[in-house]
Amino acid sequence: MASAKTDQTEALFSLESYHVSEELGFILPDPLQELPPYYQPWMDIALKIPELAQSHELRSRINKMPLLSSKFLQKHKELRLAHLALTMMTMGYVWEEGEKDTVEILPRSLAVPYWEVSQRLGLPPIITHADAVLANWKRKDPDGPFNMENLELLVSLPGGESARGFFLVTLLVELAGVPAVKVKMIYLSGWKDNPCMPNGLVYEGVQAAPMRYSGGSAAQSSLLHCFDELLGVKHDPKSASFLIYMRDYMPPLHKKLINDISLQPSLRSFVQQQDCKDLNNVFDLCVKKLLALRSYHINVVSRFITVPAARARQLRDQNHNSDGEMISRAPTALEERGTGGSSIMSFLKTVRDQTKDTLLSEASKEIKHHS
Fold first, then answer.
1. Which residues are heme b-binding (predicted)?
2. Which of 118, 261, 274, 365 is deepest in the core (most CB within 10 A)?
């Protein structure tokens, strides 16, 4: 009986059945770099988004793009690359001129195939962590290591090395978490709860009414959700509601894995029942590692999002527009809200503190934070 139960458990958590790799975790292994020739008009634009946005030609190029059928995309990796290319074109199209000159309608030639591919993948038609990070990488040297020096983005957004670093560092964080499961930030902003686009965005040829979607966010990382469920981190209703909503922006099988973990008996309760100091210490060490990651995330967000955005606001208020156009395009919506639509700093600190509450040892809960 015990053997049968073990086999059943192993079958339930076969990583491959969730599109999770023992080597790379939630990262898509070896993403395609090219689509079938029929879709070359998409790739011709997607691979030049930074240059076209810089020259203010991106919207006009997309407006002239032919309407292509998605029916010739057959394999999962073809769909993921198509979704990535269409995603980056959409974000570039909406935010090319900054938040002062957004659009209300996404043209049919982009909106229709984007919607079709999204439906087939079970992803929303907006940038997600699954696109910009998990499926957006290649090795410069195919036989070289998986590190910063040997990695490059498949499709980029304006921002140069800052954008490259933002996405690739996040990718390496995902890779670092694999053993546990064996920025031009305006271009990540969505059109849900965003004062720059209060009416949302019309996907022409899909439906007449505007749609509202949140932008890409680390809250969409399946890895962190798995850690929370495994360790038994409990969030307040408001934070929990937002995090559960973010799961709708994950690949469906990744979302299913998180749910399946949540249905298992509590690991934290099991450790408590053993009344073993060493086991308690090991559990608390795992929680402390997650706590340290979340504290570091707060520091990174403060340094690269909230502080620069506040500085840009100060320059606007003082009319010291030394950087001209770029200051006027700085993302004011991100000064208090993240790319996913959350009240960014208060949310991150709340989630961090709730992670600390998961510690078993009262002494461990006295950990000091520097933010």
1. 297
2. 118
